[in-house]
Design brief:
Length: 235
């Protein structure tokens, strides 16, 4: 990873992108002006999907969640670059990629300092033909083997002691070739191996299935499907 400081702005990116990454890369309107936007998603803020030549990327701005978001939308207390959300997510995600786990490659990030606070953005590779698990299950029911594959995929991350801060059905992705991925490693960290936090991670995911099922009748999932996922995890 290379780091460049430009006044209050700090850029960090893959070594091979030296001289290429500029502040404009983190501006969705810049990609709109260049007709490079290929899609967007709305959560706490807008996530932009853009394309350069044949390569597709995801641009995400960091937004706060919970009650504090009503007061402070996207500012975080600055205690050094290596403590920032974007830098830590870049590092953790790269470590996962280095371990050949199904996680999208981090490309570049930026921090903009403003007094005692900072704002942050991150660019990652877009998974080709990606649909999140919620979208897939609203379209069709999964086969038993799909659930076993999802369970086995999550187990691979737990086997390297990765604790996922927000393991839910929106962060499990099916690509265009039928491979399952995990995304969004904000606040994720490597923890000492322990069954307790791994069980908590899985319980969080199960609650996410139940929540989506309760919210939308089109969500094609039943409790017995969880048993298949759980069996794949323990296989």
């Amino acid at each position: 990873m290379l780091i460049e400081t430009q006044g209050a702005r700090v850029l960090f990116f893959q070594d091979e992108l030296k001289g290429e990454i500029t502040p404009e890369y983190f501006d969705g309107t810049y990609w709109q002006r260049n007709n490079a936007i290929i899609g967007s998603a709305f959560g706490r803020g807008i996530t932009w999907f853009f394309k350069i030549n044949d390569n597709e990327f995801v641009l995400r701005h960091y937004h706060r969640g919970g009650l504090i978001a009503k007061l402070i939308k996207d500012a975080y207390f600055y205690t050094g670059l290596k403590n920032t959300r974007a830098y830590q997510e870049f590092v953790v995600t790269q470590q996962l990629v280095d371990k050949n786990l199904p996680a999208p490659k981090p490309i570049a990030g930026q921090i903009i300092k403003q007094g005692l606070f900072y704002h942050a953005d991150l660019i990652t590779e877009k998974i080709a033909g990606a649909n999140d698990l919620v979208a897939v299950l609203k379209d069709r029911a999964l086969k038993p083997d799909d659930y076993r594959q999802i369970g086995a995929m999550i187990k691979r991350f737990h086997d390297v002691d990765l604790w996922h801060a927000d393991l839910n059905t929106h962060n499990i992705i099916l690509d265009g070739e039928g491979k399952w991925w995990l995304i969004d490693f904000d606040r994720c960290k490597f923890k000492p191996a322990a069954e307790a936090w791994k069980k908590d991670n899985l319980a969080r995911l199960k609650r996410s299935f139940v929540k989506e099922q309760t919210k939308d009748a089109a969500f094609k999932w039943q409790v017995t499907d969880w048993d298949l996922l759980f069996a794949g995890y323990h296989h």
